[in-house]
Task: structure prediction
Amino acid sequence: MRIGYFDCFSGASGDMILGALIDAGLSQRKMKDELEKLQIPTVRLKIKKVNKAGIQATRVIVEGKNEKRHHRNLNEILEIVEQSSIDPEVKEKSKEIFKRIAEAEAKIHRRPIEEIHFHEIGGLDSVVDIVCSVWGIRQLGLDEIYVSRVNVGSGFVKCEHGILPVPAPATLLLMKEKPIYSTGVEKELLTPTGAAILTSLGSQFGPIPEMKVESVGYGAGRDDLPHPNVLRLIIGRSLSTSLREKIMVIETNIDDMNPQFYDYIIERLFTIGARDVFLTPIIMKKNRPATLISIISSAEKLNPIIEFLLKETTTIGIRWHEDDRICAQREIITIRTKYGNLRFKVAKWDGKPINISPEYEDCKNLAFKKGISIKEVFDEAKRVSLFAHKGMKTK
Result:
């Protein structure tokens, strides 16, 4: 399993995360191509190498060409993301992160979420940071993201709401139940955007997991500090001797809800952090037909999922239990077909490939783009995957 570990000894921000991803091997050209899909012609990326207290790092600056400062609210930001042509999964995860930031700000300042505004270059800075971070982690084929304890800084920060203590109240709320500390440096080391990205994408917080290091990237922060103001990203292969993991299985029976709602329910559960969701038709007492919703998640996502089910479905009771599961190692590879590039998910056991399958969204997009049936794309994918699978097995 390919994993990434964010070492946050100097906190994290959206631009530091982007810098770390690029420094660890993410293509600058592909990131700029992805930025074009956001359809924001006034915004561009400036990427350069800098030295931070002796460490060479990548600095990413989002520039707003001819962009007049404009404070956009959440709905305006979500509309920009929704109208873009980025991958649907990246789109949904990015919108989830924006909603978390807005909800935290609204709760702290006791204002309706509709009145919360994003202040960096009218919020376009945050759009680029969040969307490109979500996309970049997928592009690098990282199956799991781990995060260290986070150095949040100290002192005070001046913002739109006045002088606030560090960590900022919204940042602290986003880091709820996550390990943080401060070395006494009087700077805001962890921003709300950085906190939202790490807590939305990170599956575990703590020490470096056992891994075989493949690459290391350093994303530079804006300020020069006594210590290296960088975010370190370590990418490698998990060396865990056991593929077992603890999971939560959450279930509820529903017999009185519009079945059209299930599409929305499943999509939202995945954005909250569910690892899998499935529906099973069942028969309840008095022969009433019903649907069993089953959700697999990590323990830390248990409370958000329960809260969502109680608010968004007609259930009045939920049960859960801890269980063990074992998974094959996974890797994302790209193979060129006669219709274009397709990503394939490769499943491995004991380091050897046991299955290879194309990503559905890639096949669907190629079918639309080429004006052909999706069955043709899948047939071509099956053909090239047979050769790829054979080649991997003989290595």
Summary: Residues 2-238 form one domain. The chain has a mean pLDDT of 90. The first strand starts at residue 2 and ends at 7.
